[in-house]
User: Fold these one by one.
Assistant:
Number 1:
Amino acid sequence: MDQSVKDALARWPNVPAVHGWLSLDARGRWRLHPQGQAADGGPGEPITNTQILEFIGRNYGHDDAGRWFFQNGPQRVFVRLDAAPYVLRLADDSRALVTHTNAQVASVDSWWLDDDGQLYAMTPLGGGIVLDRDLPPLLEKMTADGGAPLLDALDALTPSQAIAAAFPGAYAAVPLHSIAARDVPKRLGFIPCPQADPA
């Protein structure tokens, strides 16, 4: 978190939080909802200013309830998450994963493949969805038990059973589970659309 944000929080600790103004789509793009209607599901307006994007990325976090937010000075701006708290892409050298905020993913605790074919990872940073365009090359790099291609082992994946999945050279073998898409937020511990507390 930026020092200027910490200073603002110390100076104005009781600024009310806001909801409905910011969302993160499934491709890692921040979107502004000028009317505060993110909960309605609209796409919002893309934020393209590089300095603003970097500022949001540096001051992005979550509370103990699993609500993710952008700390804008003293004000907490809760975020609607269209897929997960992080969107993960292959690094430029394709040897590890990087978040949409450009943070390196140091390790993966578990993988989750939903019934729509989307792949999620639980990481020390939080849960993330693998960017759609990077999913095929990532799956090609991943291996199952004994170093066999993961793609060959996915047919054995059932709702009640996990298989070991590794990204050689980057992440050790950890369980890969199947999951219903509707269960992803609960399993990865985030609230997709935080709401204001009742007055």
Number 2:
Amino acid sequence: MKLSARNQLPGKVTAVNMGVVTAEVVIALDGGGELVSVITKTSVENLGIAVGKKVHAVVKSTEVMVAVD
């Protein structure tokens, strides 16, 4: 599948915390670091997301904030 989003970050799911409606998916990125996404429980089920599964975190945003101390 090709996407227009430039920020496609490959990684592996390390945790899935299911709620009633949403789920928190923790992804260890291949390049280092970790990303946490909150998606619907239905999406987790439909995509077969589970611990150990290889996934791509796709970030598409019109605004990205940068902060410094």
Number 3:
Amino acid sequence: MGHGGIEAVVAALQERLDTLTPAEETRREFLATYQRTTTAVARAVERGAFEDPDWVEAWDVVFADLYLKAFDAERAGGEGVSRPWRLAFDAPADLPPLRQVLLGINAHVNYDLPQALLAVIPVEQFDDPALLESRRRDHERIDGVLADRVAAEDAELATKSARTLLDRALRPLNQRASRRFLQESRRKVWHNTVELHHARLISPEAYAVRLAELELLSAAKIADLLAPGQVLLRLAVAGFGVVLPPPA
């Protein structure tokens, strides 16, 4: 696969940025952040940062498609939009940009990402320990791409809202907190992917039950993201990810 896959994703995100209506302005921050991050992943693929760049690109396209489908479904009236995405799309207009971005990350990482991983790790690959470990390592390498983006995204968001003296003093701490919770949530994503895999081996019904659990857990996380106070520092302590419990 060439790099057209990720380039097409970047173009699709740009098309939606260009057509945002005034009523959709709260969606701009996550959409723009996601586009910049996707561009950074494409650069990492080009410079050989992954063990299997073709797999990473296929995964990135599937992953983005889950967001684009949710975005388009919300535009079309909201039919079939998951709870985490509905809460993100319905964010109050006066919510600070950082919080808007975090609502999108919650829906896309905690809820969408395990589904995207399953889509590009077929059942037989779970039976190949060496290959599965390679997939897990590439999954974790995305952390490096995201961590590199933290400071740049912080600066980008700073241009969108007035910074208090306290905010500026906390910036280095907030950046470290972001790196920490990204790593923590990625480990939990892998756990949830394995749990969903075990369910899909049983039956489509068993998978649907577990996915519904993940949807509820991800939606419940919104309360942490909207609570007053220094949200990034709180997430560094309490964690950003969600964990599927053992099946009932």
Number 4:
Amino acid sequence: MIRIASLLLVLLLNPLVSFVAPANATEAGWALLREGGHVVLLRHAYAAGTTDAPRIDLDDCRTQRGLSDRGKQQARRLGSLIAARAQPVVEVYTSRYCRTRETADLAFGSSLVTDLPALDPTGDQAAQEAAKNEILSLVEGFTRSGNLVFVTHDDVIRSLTGSGAREGEAVIVRRSPEGLHIAARIIFN
């Protein structure tokens, strides 16, 4: 009987443990954004499909994966939460892809959003290194009291930090000698 009770206790507590870690990570992220002066790498919200067309035209959203209805709701929600729980977002840079631009516009309003080609994914190693340097330069030069947001893609975030992000996840970063160090994450469900 004691073994069964112990097993049940372990099974009941195990799911709780898995929920505590993301919540703590998320709260640490909110604490940083409340301070202001931080940089956020935000992966675009939920997008429909799994791949883009073989030939993408950045001016034609029909050739790209777009935000799903769920993604549009997620973008609005994350923008509302950031506005309510953090210092103001003072600058937003976005990839030129439609799903990133729409995420940025829905979350922060188009008046704050600036296209930054360096945030576009690229398969070319030299172009990727040049883009990374441009982004690092912007991060290094950011000294305002509000927060700076880059809306981009998983592979760009992975290139900058060595770690990926879920769709709609915010990764708060700090500059380090090796590049960008992840200070915290905010997961928007």
